[in-house]
Amino acid sequence: MEGAEAASLLGERGQGRLAQFKTYRRRWFLLAAICLLNCSNAMLWLTFAPVADKAAAYFHVSLEMVNWLSIVYLLISIPFGLVATWVLDSVGLRCAVILSAWLNMTGSIIRMLSVLKFLSLGSQSYWYLFIGQCLCALAQPLIIFSPTKLAALWFPDHQRATANMIASMSNPLGILIANVLSPALVPEGKHIPLMLGVYAIPAVTACALATVGIHEKVPPTPPSASATNSTSQPFLTGLKMLLRNKPYIMLAVCFGGGIGMFTCFSALLEQILCEKGYSNEFAGLNGALFTVCGLLGAFLLGLYVDRTRKFIESTKICFCLSALASIVFAVTSRFRHQAVMLAITSSLFGFFGFAIYPIAMELAVECSYPVGEGTSTGLIFVASQIEGVILMILLQALTVRVSEDPSSTCALDQDGALDWTTPVLVLAGLCSAMACFYVIFFHTDYKRLHAETNSGDLVKAEDTATADVPEA
Length: 472
Prior knowledge:
Blueprint: H1 2-14, H2 27-45, H3 52-59, H4 63-91, H5 93-113, H6 125-154, H7 160-185, H8 192-213, H9 235-243, H10 246-274, H11 280-308, H12 311-332, H13 339-368, H14 373-397, E1 400-402, E2 417-419, H15 421-441, H16 447-468
Antiparallel strand pairs: 1-2
Helix pairs in contact: 1-16, 2-5, 2-6, 2-7, 2-8, 3-4, 4-5, 4-6, 4-14, 5-6, 5-8, 6-7, 6-14, 7-11, 7-13, 10-11, 10-13, 10-14, 10-15, 11-13, 12-13, 12-15, 13-14, 14-15
């Protein structure tokens, strides 16, 4: 019934010669602005993860308090994620992008205030930093949900997966930059103010581009049949349709769990490796390889899916291979002097894991059409944040305090270092379980593609009928 409804909606749009579509070159400017904003927000999110020990010493707080600078992103985006889906599908893409840009910039500036000497904040400096992180966290759902909306509204059907891939993968690119740049900028804790200043530059630039350069929430003429109907369902109606859609719920649980695991991996990588004697620089390099290979995998898979439309097959294969890589990493990370093997497994984990992200977002739209793109991707993101919070808290709870080890590179607090053996094995086990569940049980129709095909056939039939009518 839902597929027939989607086809009829597009059919109505196809009548009256409205099926004339057009693309605009300014779609690439919109894509660039959202990419920079997404990249900046990810950099602000994981600013401290690669230098967690030095940040803890600088702000005179525990490692757990530093981890909360990352966890707060997950907590805030759970309630605000629902608001963000409403903003995107009801108010529009332009408003969502500009609002997120200003929240992101304001948060980055408040973070800088926390380390300014002349303010003499003392013990309050951490809480200024935390407030800045909270504002950046408010921006995240609006930014994360935008790529599928942008791709649907401004790009033709043969470019949608690629556009979504480029915009979505700017987020892990920001994670990559943070993993490389933070250790480079902070060889010692006293350099943290410099790092915060550098990270504010892209946030300010992205805000200027979004505010000055984005003038329309939709193009004058749509680029595809489905774009004419991109906001067809009211928010609450769409939400009810999603909650009754079993394939979508399954995708949200499995893919949301995958995002949560990648969040934990990125945020905790330095702490996992330092206990076995690996330096912050190596942890940053490992995170960089994880992300670079992920970007490459997403790029290649995006091109492949744009040509073949094999969304389900691609995500199932990549999910299984990323689960296998997580198992190898979990085992290898428990041994010292395994730098090469760790680099290879991190690269493979990223290559197959990140590749799933943009394709699964497109798949969410396909299996939930005609629900708005903001709502369908937003609910998955909210699920991923809930699962991410649970995982972060669970994994930290499973750590064990160990006595000081001469080979450890962790900046130890008074209670000693943390052993991460149990948490990483649990993470690998959960990844494998979700991959098996997804491969066995997930099946769906491509409702948006079918609706566009039916609409195209209807327009062709009308053209043929018009051509056969003799002139008076």
